[in-house]
Amino acid sequence: METVTIKPDVVIIGSGVGGGAVARQLAATGAKILILERGDFLPNEPQNADAEAVFVQARYKTRDEWQDQTGRRYRPGQYYYVGGHTKFYGTAMFRFRESDFEAVPHEDGTSPAWPLGYHDLAPFYDQAEAIFGVRGHAGDDPTEPPRKAYPHPAIPHEPLIAGLAARFAKRGLRPFHMPSAVDLGPGGSCRRCGTCDAFACRFGAKGDAEMRLIRPLLGRDNVTLWTGAEVRRLLTDDAGQRITAAEIRRGGETLRIDAPLFILSAGAINSALILLRSANAQNPQGIANRSGVVGRYLMNHHLTGLMALHPFGVNDTRFPKTLSINDFYHGLPQDRAARGNIQMLGNIQGPMIGGAYPWVPRFAANLLGRHSIDILCMSEDLPVAESRVRLLEGDRVEVDYRPGDRAPHLRFVRHVRRLLRSMFPLVLQHHFGIEAPSHQCGTVRMGDDPRQSALDGWCRAHDHPNLYVVDAGFFPSSAALNPALTIAAQALRVGSHLQTRWPHAAAA
Ligand SMILES: Cc1cc2nc3c(=O)[nH]c(=O)nc-3n(C[C@H](O)[C@H](O)[C@H](O)COP(=O)(O)OP(=O)(O)OC[C@H]3O[C@@H](n4cnc5c(N)ncnc54)[C@H](O)[C@@H]3O)c2cc1C
C-alpha cells in the first residue's frame, strides 16, 4: 500500500448532503480538506430525463450487488455520484417535528429520543434552507415546529394539484404547500421539464448537494475533491483509538491517506460497512462499535405510493410535488397509532411501472402513467436491533431489513386510500421496499449512552476522538418526514462546532 504525499487536515468520506455540509463549514477555517468520493460527477446528458434509461435500463444505479437474509441477490437503488443521493432526490425539504426528537410510544415499541432537541437544530435548519434555496410558506402546516419565514415563497400548485387540494380541504383536511428545494420561481433555472423526483436535473435547478454544497467549494485552495476514490477501511493507532489513516482504492491502486481528523459520510449503509470492515485487534467488532450497534437499527421509512386514476382527464402537471398533508402525522382520529405524512410523488411514467412490474404491457403502463395522480404515504419506521447490514465472507453485503411498526402504516394507508376512493374511481397501491433504500438511516446511531450508541450528540464516535459520522446513519429514529434537511442541519451543526474549536478539534 502506498502512502500519499498529500497531507490534509481533514478527510471527508463522501460528498453527499452530510459530507458536503461539514465541508462547507470547515472550509471557512482554512483547514486543508480532502473529500474522497467513490463516484464521479453525474454526466449531464439526455438520458438524465429518460424514464426508460433511468428505470428500465437502470443506467445510474450501482452495478454492485447486495443480498437479503435469504441470500437473494439484487442491484440496490444506490447512486454513487458527487452529491450522493440528492442527485436523484425529490427536493422535499421538511424539518422534523419537535416530538420527533423526543421518545414517542408506538404500537410496536418506543421511538427513542435524540440526544438533542428541535431547538438545537433550529438555527441550522434555517441555514440549510438558505443554502438549498427551500421554497415554502410558514404557518400552513398544522404540525410545523416554531420557525421563521422560508427563504423563498412557496411554489404555487398547478391546476390539477390545486383542485386536489380543494377536494382535501372540503373533506376537512389542511393541505399545505410542501417545502421544496428547486429553483422554480420568477427568473429561476427550473424548466418544468416534468421529471424531478428520482431523476437528475439537467439544468442545475435542483437544490442538490453537488450544486449547493460541493461545487461552490471547488474554487478554494484549501478544498480538494478526489472522485473515483473508494474508502475501504479506517486504520487506527496501536491503542485502537485515534484514526490515523483511510485506506482507499483509486485508479486500480490501494492508497493510504493520513490525517488528524476524519469525517465519515458515505451514506448510512456504506458508512456502517466501512466501520465494520475496519475491525482490528483493538476493535474486533469494527471501529466505533464497542456497543455492537454499528450496522444495526437500519430504518428506511414505510413508503407506499398510491396512484389515483383520473380516467377522463390526463395528468399534465409538470411539477406535482407542491402539496402535502400532515393532519394524520400524530395519528388518525379513531386510531392514534396509525399515522404519517401524505405528499405528492413525482409524476409516475409508464417505464417506471414497467421497471417495477415487467409483466404489465407497456401500453397499459403508459396509460396508467398518463391518467394517474400520484401520492406517497410515509410513516415512521421504528429502530429494530435485528434490522441490520452485515459484511459476509468475501466482502459480500447482506441487508437484513426488519421494519418496525408496519401494521399501523398499513391502516394509515387504508385510510388515505379510502379518502382517495371518495374522489377517484380506482386507486392502485405500490410499496417501496429496501431494494430502494432511499431513506436509509440509523446504522451508526447517536445517543448519550456509549453502551447503546456509537456516536455522541455531536456525531463524534464515543471511542475515537477524531472520528465523526454525519450521514443519515446517525439518526436514532426516522420520524415520518423526508430526511435530507435534517441530515444537512445536523452536519452544519457539527461543522460549526468543529469550526469554533479549530484547530484544536483536529488534535483532540
Ligand atoms: C429517488 C430518491 C428520492 C428522494 N427524495 C427525497 C426527498 O424528496 N427529500 C428528502 O429529504 N430526501 C429524499 N431522498 C433521500 C435523500 O436523498 C437522502 O436521505 C440523502 O441524500 C442522504 O444523504 P447522506 O449524506 O446520508 O448520504 P448519500 O447521499 O448516500 O451520500 C454518501 C456519499 O458517499 C459516497 N460513498 C459511498 N461509499 C463510499 C466509499 N466507500 N468511499 C467514498 N465515498 C463513498 C456516495 O457515492 C455518496 O456520494 C431521496 C432519495 C432517493 C434515492
Architecture overview:
By secondary structure, the chain is of the alpha/beta class. The chain is globular, with a radius of gyration of 22 Å. Strands 8-15-16-17-14-20 form a 6-stranded antiparallel sheet. It has a 5-stranded parallel sheet with strand order 9-3-2-13-21. A 4-stranded mixed sheet has the order 1-12-11-10. β4 (66-67) and β5 form a beta hairpin. The mean pLDDT is 96. The chain is built from 11 helices and 21 strands. The protein has one domain: FAD/NAD(P)-binding domain (3-Layer(bba) Sandwich), CATH 3.50.50. α1 runs parallel beside α10 (484-500), α3 (118-132) crosses α10 and α7 (350-356) packs across α8 (362-371). It has helices at residues 17-27, 51-56, 118-132, 159-170, 209-214, 268-277, 350-356, 362-371, 406-421, 484-500, 504-507, and strands at 2-3, 10-13, 33-36, 66-67, 73-74, 104-105, 110-111, 176-177, 223-226, 229-236, 243-250, 253-258, 261-264, 302-309, 323-325, 341-344, 372-379, 388-392, 396-400, 426-432, 467-469. 22% of the residues lie in helices and 18% in strands. The structure holds flavin-adenine dinucleotide (FAD).
